[in-house]
Amino acid sequence: MKTSLLVVGKTVDKQLVKLEEEYQNRLRHYLTFSMQVVPELKGTKHLPKGEQLEREADLLLRQVEPGDEVVLLDEKGRERTSVEFAGFLEQKLLASTRRLVFVVGGPYGFAERVYQRANGLMSLSRMTFSHQMVRVIFLEQLYRAMTIIRGEPYHHE
Fold first, then answer.
1. Is the distance from CB of 124 to CB of 138 less than 8 angstroms?
2. What would be the CATH architecture of the domain defined by 2-41+50-150?
3. Which of the residues in the chain have pLDDT under 70?
4. Rounded distance, CA 48 to CA 8, Å?
5. How far is 155 from 72, CA to CA, in rounded Å?
6. Element (H, E) at 129
7. What are the sequence ranges of the domains in the chain?
8. For the chain, what percent of residues have pLDDT higher than 90?
9. Which of the residues 47, 64, 132, 147 could staple to 154 if both were Cys, CB 3.0 to 4.6 A apart?
10. What is the pLDDT of residues 53-80, one digit of tens each?
11. Per DSSP, what are the bridge partners of residue 122?
12. Burial class (CB in 10 A: 0-12, 13-18, 19+), 10
């Protein structure tokens, strides 16, 4: 199964970039993984929120293929424990899901048409994190899930 993390805007903090790269390298041991970055919109200061969401939707939906299973990382989504997330991923692996795409939106979330395209919503926490931190947290959880699936000694209960 191909797995992808689709995000809006690049990470500017060099320490977070290093962590992203570290977990992406670890993940490639377990699955075909890629992180796709769509450019952050420029000149949005005077742009209404709805217009910004629609422009980001255009960029995001261009990266999604018809057969993709899309999961939005969204505050309204279902929270899972690390073990539950591993079970979710294992189901996708067993179901021969072609490509699983997790999406982190921009500062205002997602346009309605992105929600309509999604197959599910997932929340990492009820707390709010910066979009750059969410990437590292998610990548670590994805790595943790793969080690749980393989029975490797990374996760402790």
1. yes
2. 3-Layer(aba) Sandwich (3.40)
3. none
4. 18
5. 24
6. none
7. 2-41+50-150
8. 82
9. 147
10. 999 999 999 999 999 999 999 999 999 9
11. 78
12. exposed
